[in-house]
Amino acid sequence: MEWLHKSFHELHQMEIYAIFKARVDVFVVEQQCAYPEVDEFDLQATHIWLHDNQKMVAYARILPANSKYQEVSIGRVLVTNNYRGKGYGKQLMKQAIHYAANHFKSNIKIQAQQYLSAFYESFGFKQISPAYLEDGIWHIDMIWEHK
């Protein structure tokens, strides 16, 4: 298995396909959310993922400050169905936070599904908004402070 970090322009066609397929499978199909999964933020994101013999294991995208939020953000965090429950989500967040903190030296803001708040709190994120409904799922905004 190997962790990869690439800008959109560095991605190969099959990598783009694997990323978009995993995101649609998890967020649109599994969570039954009809929304524009592929968006303009993909073009400016750093895409980070773990693959196992060309199979997507875990994925997130990191957006620079002043794109989606004033702060750097981590989003589209997922572990594919066959790899869940094996600690890959924790590895992914460690990789994403490390990358964002070292490359951007900024606070990190996330839009978290509310039921995952304890997971994100375990990495030092703190809730900064009340819960709100987005695409039929309760979310909260959270912040990680760069030290």
From TrEMBL:
Domain (N-acetyltransferase): residue spans on this chain: 6-147
One of the Pfam families matching this protein, by short name: Acetyltransf_10
Domain of life the protein comes from: Bacteria
Protein name, as recorded: GNAT family acetyltransferase
Keywords of the record: Transferase
PROSITE patterns, alphabetized: GNAT (PS51186)
GO MF annotations in UniProt: glucosamine 6-phosphate N-acetyltransferase activity
Organism: Virgibacillus pantothenticus
Record bears the keyword Chloroplast: no
Listed InterPro entries: Acyl_CoA_acyltransferase, GNAT_dom, GNPNAT1-like
Record has Nucleotide-binding as a keyword: no
